[in-house]
Amino acid sequence: MNYYYSSEITFYTKKKKYSALIPLLHLICSSGGNAGMATAYAAKRLGVRATVFTMDGLPQPVLKKFHDLGCQIYIGGPIWDICDRTARQHMAELQQKGENV
Asked: Model's pTM, two decimal places?
């Protein structure tokens, strides 16, 4: 049996396997920049919504890139811990409403 370790193969397999669930997903991330950008990019590739909670002081070009990827962005505070706490609260509220986050 052959095993292939490729992100594209894994992406294709998972997208095919879970294709009925993908439109219902909502990715949420707290980030200082890079993890949020990866989340926004993955959401765009999957065709799902993404919300990123980030810190004050991100440069305008970075905020524009988030916007260009179709991501909602919330400026959550001066430090990552506060952003993460806010993201987790938002996620809990959405889960109570029945969203798949």
From this structure: 0.73
